[in-house]
Design goal:
With about 260 residues, this protein is of the alpha/beta class. Helix content is about 40%, strand content about 25%. The protein has a five-stranded mixed β-sheet with strand order 5-1-6-13-7. Strand 2 and strand 3 form a beta hairpin. The longest helix is centred in the C-terminal third of the chain and has 17 residues. Keywords: Signal. It comes from Tistrella bauzanensis. Pfam families: SBP_bac_3. This is Amino acid ABC transporter substrate-binding protein.
Length: about 260
């Protein structure tokens, strides 16, 4: 999850902190009056948000944002902007919200409020579909594959009895697992799920609810002191999760329910 941890974001946060917290207003009333909710994202983070061959911004984030707007009773207008300045743009009222795969962190919560989380991501362990490995304990004495230099490598090397091999990236990890040269791979869960969806890879994710780094909360950012807007967006998100719309969107773009 380089996107969630990048130093670029840290630089962006410093800019935001220097700009200060925006003043409050009744933003929900203004959005309804205008009939449009402006929704920001980078447009460069597939499958969550990206530009397709028709020059349209699509993806999981775009679909979630547009559906929230629709349920509030307005049109969702996607705005693409550079990621390192996206919070500053929200504070400057260039758009109404960010539905752009933003991790909820204490630093960000000082300057914006979050609706959600609307999905979770994090570390996961995958094995071949027919493997007899059912838990982390079953990996003892076996070989695991990780991407060289990722935090997953450091974590894997602390596990008792694991033999760790490093590779350049996910494509190699998938090939090695399918060839049984490694018996498990450690990686960010969503890229692997997308690979399963797009390539039909015969993999299975282990159930590891307490794994370190296994669940990072991703939220929808809005300006502070807008409780009416926060409540309306949260109600729309909750309704989507309850009536099956959220799962349909998640399956279309990610291939799994990632709430």
């Amino acid at each position: 999850m380089n996107r969630f941890l990048s130093s670029v974001l840290a630089a962006g946060m410093a800019l935001v902190m220097s700009a200060g917290v925006a003043a409050a207003d009744d933003q929900l009333a203004r959005i309804k009056q205008d009939g449009v909710m402006k929704i920001a994202m980078s447009g460069a983070y597939p499958p969550f948000n990206f530009v397709n061959d028709k020059n349209e911004v699509v993806g999981f984030d775009a679909s979630i944002g547009r559906e929230i707007a629709r349920r509030i009773g307005v049109e969702g207008e996607i705005v693409t902007t550079a990621w390192d300045g996206i919070l500053a743009g929200l504070l400057a009222r260039k758009y109404d919200t960010i539905v752009g795969s933003m991790t909820i962190t204490p630093e960000r919560e000082k300057v914006v409020d979050f609706v959600g989380p609307y999905y979770h991501a994090g570390r996961a362990v995958f094995v071949a579909e027919g493997s007899d490995i059912q838990s982390l304990a079953d990996i003892k004495g076996k070989t695991v594959g990780v991407t060289l230099g990722e935090t997953h490598e450091k974590w894997a090397r602390t596990q008792d009895g694991w033999s760790v091999r490093t590779y350049k990236g996910l494509p190699e990890l998938l090939l090695e697992l399918q060839a049984d040269r490694v018996q498990a791979i450690i990686a960010d869960n969503i890229p692997v799920r997308v690979a399963i969806k797009e390539n039909g890879a015969k993999l299975r994710q282990l159930d590891t609810p307490d794994i370190e780094g296994g669940s990072v909360a991703i939220g929808i950012a809005i300006n502070k002191k807008n409780p009416e807007l926060a409540a309306a967006m949260q109600a729309a998100l909750d309704e989507m999760m309850a009536d099956g719309t959220y799962k349909k969107i998640a399956m279309e773009w990610v291939g799994a329910d990632i709430r």
